[in-house]
Amino acid sequence: MKNRIQVIQGDITRQTCDAIVNAANTSLLGGGGVDGAIHRAAGPDLLAECRTLHGCQTGKAKITKGYRLPARYVIHTPGPIWHGGGRNEPDLLASCYRSCLELAEAKGCRTVCFPSISTGVYHFPLNQAAGIAMETIGEFLASHTLPAQVTMVCFDGTTKGAYDQALAELTKP
Ligand code: APR
Fold this sequence. Notes:
With 173 residues, the protein is of the alpha/beta class. 39% of the residues lie in helices and 18% in strands. The protein has a 6-stranded mixed β-sheet, sandwiched between helices. Helix 3 runs parallel beside helix 4. The longest helix has 18 residues. It starts with a strand and ends with a helix. Bound molecules: adenosine-5-diphosphoribose (APR).
């Protein structure tokens, strides 16, 4: 399972995986951060399809086509906004990863790319989020053959360091 998860530094809009995940908000109508980058790269047809979805609950996920993106699909998931940890934020973040993987598998995706959900504008503590992400992804892959490969696409060095450490923790003997 170890070699089915990788951590890279880069721009998720340029990844050629079957599905990229968008750290969206519950409106699914775009925003800043990675949400804004994905919508800019995908073009206006992405927003047009998102409008037909009528939003998405935190922790759930919905899938659209990728349009001008190299990725075939975009899986949109609203992560939890951090309010100190007492509002079920950890479970909701885990649910984001699980919901996205379930949708990816249902669509037969072999490769999926995730951004660091909720650790930007939503202020989820980075190291804690990385641990939750890796544990949830590891748990899903241990009992599913698809997706074959999951890539965390980190936008900066600090984020990459956190996910490298979380992956090392997950796979230590
Ligand atoms: N590729 C990969 N990662 C990116 C990219 C990119 N092109 N652009 C930003 N990121 C990273 C950020 O650096 C951060 O590590 O994505 C991570 C998540 O940060 P945000 O995009 O701020 O997402 P989040 O914290 O989940 O907040 C979601 O922000 O943009 C709005 O509409 C969005 O309301 C929603 C909220």
